[in-house]
Design goal:
The structure is a homodimer.
Chain A (H helix, E strand, L loop, with lengths): L1 H13 L17 E2 L11 E2 L5 E6 L6 E3 L9 E2 L1 E2 L4 E5 L7 E5 L1 E3 L2 E3 L6 E4 L2 E8 L16 E9 L4 E9 L13 E5 L8 H4 L3 H10 L7 E5 L20 H18 L9 E6 L1 H9 L9 E5 L6 H5 L4 H4 L2 E7 H6 L13 H10 L4 E6 L6 H11 L7
Parallel strand pairs in A: 15-16, 15-17, 17-18, 18-19, 19-20
Antiparallel strand pairs in A: 1-2, 2-3, 3-7, 4-5, 4-9, 6-7, 8-12, 9-10, 11-12, 13-14, 14-16
């Protein structure tokens, strides 16, 4: 377990957004402010090819760098202009979708004052969005919208009032007699319960799917996975990783609270668990051992189910109605990341096919031209949601 | 109108948190991380007297300053230590409560990487909290908690899906037959619909009041007041200030949406409007002219009701069940800010007493030792809530 987590962490920490294939084409001068900029801010900007242009005002700084761009070469170095502003354009286009980044100003780590912040890497990072060719599925449209409720639930096991977010689908308020299935959806390492809605647009993905009649309306719950609690000398807390504290919060505290305060269908066949990256590892540690509670399981860039996993898990074939596994295509090029604990180099697609042959409803999805990043996970949710709760 | 708004804007922009009275006492070395720090961050720190100590890593910077501290002298200048970190302690204690701030690093404006961010001054600013002696009323306690729902409502008048937050009190989910009054609560200039919950803890104030049986449970709705829309050359959009766009969104779009999707009591005597600073001005522009819709009105550091206002507003005496006006005590020391449009130097307490004598249920509250800042407004909500919807 520890080895797999260390692998995952290494992947997450070092993963810079890969540059897409560059061509000899000139950089198009059609840069526009990023959709994630703070109100009224002109920079950072993105062009139609996916290049990013930065502009940071710090007239007396010695050097300014952006962590985004060329991972291997340490990011994009900005150059000071006559007006005191530091500017640069990435050397190549970035992958479509959402990327975290930050600035290095004279040796210190700061956020880009032009961009909004998103919680990742155990800090609020700057965020930028490269418009994706398929961005329509997570766009804010003129369709009925569900609500995203912030709840505070009592957690005796941790001695706290803990926070979670609960997406209720359009119609939830009106259909007072209807009850809904629930998906418990976990964030990745260094993120928190805000990630699936802020970075992932999970609510908009669901609103759009429901408006098109492509998925059954269901509830989504996100809460903090606790594995990245900070302890001095133990970055991310992985050295002392233990699933039990989170499992206790989830199974004994959060699920009863949600079932007590929302109109849920609370039987096994109407409850799913899925997660991205570290959240996938958590899902794999919790759901298969609690098949009286979960019928649908999703691992998004967070491991696979091997035939051994299935054979060694009592009830898996009978009780698991969907085993959904997905990756960004660039993750599979590397190979190591995709492996499950104890078999780091296993081919996840082969795993998915093997358990399908063994009778499991196994679905394997690969997000084209994306890495270990949020567009992979937005697309994965978009693929997975219509497959859930089809009883 | 324009003059009053210009006054207000000038006050808001230049208002740095006032330093409390200093004494000859030594600075107590009991500094602890601010409660608003990002996870695991040791700085900024606050001591038991309200001094703040900053520490910012930027080893190659030329100069680092914090906007917080001595407004007149341009903030707190940090000094570089042997380890490359810049540190300083404010020259005196700050007022209790919440303060916005930012860094100036080599001439550029950045946020403190140690602190969480809060939307104010038309940007996400760093925030710090000086523990207040009466902080208990907005503390997160082991009591039943209401939910804060993010909603997206259609706004044909602005061609957008707009965001609002809706606080539903504890018990809302269980008491399926109960309907609740609604308070529409506006943020200040440069802020947005997140302010009353993030900076103001409006939900915790309500949870605690309800747990103590001190207020009737009601719904609170916050949305963006639009007056600080950014236009080039027009900071804050005040030069072209017009209440109509926001009034249309509020009256024709948001209120019908809320009444359609939440179990509200939708008659006049169960609807209130209040706001802080600019939100108070908006409240005063909208509510008295729409007394078929609002029975309770609150202006928090955002103007007063004079006898002329009352006499010149048809139905005021008959239909307004509460005219609540409040200020931070330090605002009244200055005088100018407290004045209503057209009478900038009027004494707001005298105004409150005059309309009370004229038969209005007028309540005037002054927050002790606070300025134009959120502790004034947390306390004002705490005072006002028990007075609402007492039919």
């Amino acid at each position: 377990m520890k080895r797999a987590l260390a692998l995952l962490l290494a992947t997450v920490v070092t993963a810079a957004p890969a540059l897409a294939q560059t061509t000899a084409t000139a950089v198009a001068e059609d840069f526009k402010p990023s959709s994630l900029n703070q109100p009224g801010q002109e920079y950072p900007q993105v062009n139609s090819q996916g290049y990013v242009r930065f502009r940071v005002n710090a007239p007396e700084a010695q050097h300014v760098k952006v962590s985004l761009g060329l991972g291997g070469r340490g990011g994009t170095v900005l150059n000071k202009g006559a007006d005191g502003a530091w500017t640069a354009t990435t050397e190549g286009p970035l992958d479509e979708g959402f990327h975290y980044y930050h600035l290095n100003v004279d040796g210190g780590t700061f956020n880009d004052p032009g961009a909004q912040n998103f919680y990742g890497s155990i800090r609020w990072e700057s965020g930028i969005e490269i418009p994706a060719h398929d961005a329509d599925f997570y766009a804010l449209k003129d369709v009925p919208h569900g609500h995203v409720d912030q709840i505070l639930f009592p957690s005796p096991s941790t001695g706290k009032q803990r926070r979670a977010f609960v997406y209720t689908p359009p119609g939830y308020d009106k259909n007072q007699r209807e009850r809904y299935p629930v998906l418990y959806l976990q964030h990745g390492w260094g993120e928190d319960e805000t990630a699936w809605f802020n970075q992932g647009h999970a609510n908009l993905i669901m609103d759009n799917l429901i408006a098109e009649g492509k998925t059954r309306p269901f509830i989504i719950v996100t809460t903090y996975g606790m594995t990245n609690d900070i302890k001095p000398g133990s970055p991310g807390g992985l050295n002392s990783f233990d699933i039990k504290p989170f499992q206790t919060v989830l199974l004994n505290e959060l699920i009863p609270y949600v079932d007590g305060h929302f109109r849920t269908l609370s039987d096994q066949k109407h409850r799913a668990m899925a997660g991205l990256s570290m959240g996938g590892f958590e899902t794999k540690l919790i759901a298969p051992k609690n098949l009286d509670k979960f019928a649908y399981i999703g691992l998004l860039s967070g491991g696979t189910f091997s035939l051994d996993d299935v054979n060694n898990t009592p009830g898996f074939k009978e009780k698991v109605k969907l085993a959904f596994v997905s990756f960004g295509s660039r993750e599979l090029q590397g190979g190591g990341m995709a492996g499950p604990p104890g078999a780091a180099r296993a081919d996840p697609r082969a795993n998915a096919e093997a358990i399908k042959k063994a009778g499991v409803n196994s679905v394997f999805y690969v997000s084209p031209n994306t890495a270990h990043e949020f567009l992979s996970w937005r697309r994965s949710l978009h693929e997975m949601a219509p497959l859930l709760f089809r009883d």
